[in-house]
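For homework, think about our next protein:
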Amino acid sequence: MLPPVANRFVAGETAAEAIDHARRQAKLGIDPMVNLLGSHHADRPAAEADAAEYRLLVEDLAEADLEGEPAISVKPTQIGLDCGETVFRDLLGGVLEAAVTHDVFVWLDMEEHTTVDATLAAYERFARLSDGRVGVCLQADLERTLDDLERLADVPGKLRLVKGGAYDRPSEIAYTTDTRIDQAYRRLLDRAFETVEGPVVVATHDPEMIEYATDRADGTDLEFQFLMGVRPRAQRTLATEYDVCQFVPYGTRWKRWAINRAKRNVGFTARAVAETLVPLGNGETFEEEVGVSVPVHESPATSGLESTGE
C-alpha cells in the first residue's frame, strides 16, 4: 500500500491496482492511459522486462472490459531507446502488436530533446503500420515543434500537445520563459486546429489554455488529458462534454514520481495531508467537502503530461 499523498498521484504498485483505479474513473466518463513507471534502461534485459509487462498489461486492460477506450503510455527509453533505435523499435513493435490485438491504444511519451528524432520516426512508422493506433507527445517549448506538427499532421495517429517537458532545454533550441512558452503553446494549438485530421489532444492543467482551446476549436473534436490526482473536479466537469483521458501511473518505482507531483501541486498535497490527519469520515474528499476548486501550483513549462525522468 502506498503512503498518503503518494496514492493521490500513483494508482499502486501493481497493474491490478491501476486497473481498479481505471475502472472507477471509467464510470465517471474518464478514459485511462496506464503507465508503468520507469525510464532509461541502459541494458536490454531490463527494457525487455518492461516491454513484457506492457504486453501483459494490455491483455489485462482488455479483460477488464472498461467503458471507453483504454490506453497505455510508454517512454521510449523504458523499452530500449538507450540501447539503440533497433532495440527500441523491436520492443515497441511487440508491445504494439499486443495492443492492436486487444484494441488498446499506445501513447509514446516524449523525453529529452535528444530523443525527439528517434521517437517521432518510430511514431510515424508504427502509426501507419497500425492504422493510427499510436499517439505521440509534441512539446511546445521546443522551437522545432511547429515544423514537427506540419510533418505529422496527416499521419493516421494522435498528437498530444503539451507545453513542455521536465528536462532542461538549451536556450538555443527552446523557449525558456513562461510567457514565450505560453505563446508557443497557443500557436501550436491554433496550427493543430488548422491542419490535424481527427481530434486535437490538449494535455495541460492550465485553465487559461483549456479555455483557449475550447474557444478556438471551432468544431474540431477535442480530447483533454490530465495526470492522476491533479484537478480531479475539472476532469469530471470536462468529461460531461469532451473526451477526457487520465494518465494513471503504477509500479514499484513510484517515489520520485510522487515527490515531483507533490512539489508541483502544493494545494492538492496540503489537502491530502489534512484529510489524512483529520478524516472526513463520509467518503468525501476534502475538496468536495468544502466545495471549492483547489488551485494547482505548477510550472507552466511542465503543466502537461511530460516525462519527469523518474
The first helix runs from residue 6 to 9.
